[in-house]
Structure formats: structure tokens, C-alpha cells
Design a protein that fits this description.
With 118 residues, this protein is mainly α. Helix content is 50%, strand content 0%. It is built from three helices and no strands. It has helices at residues 18-49, 54-76, 88-91. The longest helix is centred in the N-terminal third of the chain and has 32 residues, at 18-49.
Length: 118
């Protein structure tokens, strides 16, 4: 009878739960949209106070107001790759143990010693 190869389950191989992924994506989205709001406020303050180098700061703030929402939506909808598409798993093979832990072969099992004396 051939034994099946035992492969231990590593906790580091477990993927994050759907709720954890969603929560982290929501936090990232809110943070990025908060930065966008800050860009809008800074732009309004710069225009209102007629700051020096307004020609330099205003395009930078406008670029932030335009690119950040686009990036926020892309990153909020992004999910981690599935296990079959990960490159790390293709290059590294895990070592498989032939026997499960705590199992002994027939030679390793303790034998009863029978006394030959009557």
C-alpha cells in the first residue's frame, strides 16, 4: 500500500479574508480622497492669497486633484492575485515529507520482547 505524500499546511500560505481585503482597500481609498480634499483646499488658499510662484504650485495641485481620484478608484478595485497566478509559487517548490509527523515505519515501531525462558 502506497502512502500519500504529506504536505503540511503553513499559515503563511493562507490568503487574507475577503473582509480584511475590503477593509484595507476602503482605508486606502478614504486616505487618498482625503489627500485630494487637501489638494483642493491648498489650491483655494493659494489662489486666494495670490501666493508667489502660483504658476508652479497651481498645476501641481491640479495634477493631484485629477490623478489621485483615478488612482484611488483603481487601487480600491484591485484585489490580490489568485494563488495560481502568483509567480513566487512557480519558482519555489515546497519540500514534501514522505511520512506525516508522528507516524513510524514498521522498523521504527517498538517491538514486544518475548522471553524465551519458561
Amino acid at each position: 500500500m502506497k502512502r500519500q505524500a504529506y504536505q503540511p499546511i503553513l499559515i503563511t500560505d493562507a490568503s487574507r479574508s475577503q473582509d480584511d481585503q475590503l477593509t484595507s482597500r476602503q482605508k486606502r481609498y478614504v486616505l487618498m480622497m482625503g489627500i485630494r480634499v487637501a489638494c483642493v483646499i491648498v489650491g483655494a488658499i493659494l489662489v486666494g492669497t495670490k501666493a508667489p510662484l502660483l504658476w508652479l504650485w497651481l498645476p501641481l495641485v491640479a495634477l493631484g486633484m485629477i490623478l489621485i481620484p483615478w488612482l484611488a478608484v483603481l487601487l480600491a478595485n484591485d484585489r490580490p492575485p489568485k494563488e495560481q497566478h502568483r509567480l513566487a509559487g512557480k519558482f519555489q517548490t515546497r519540500r514534501r515529507d514522505e511520512t506525516p509527523p508522528m507516524s513510524l515505519t514498521a522498523e521504527e515501531r517498538p517491538h514486544k520482547v518475548i522471553d524465551a525462558e519458561p
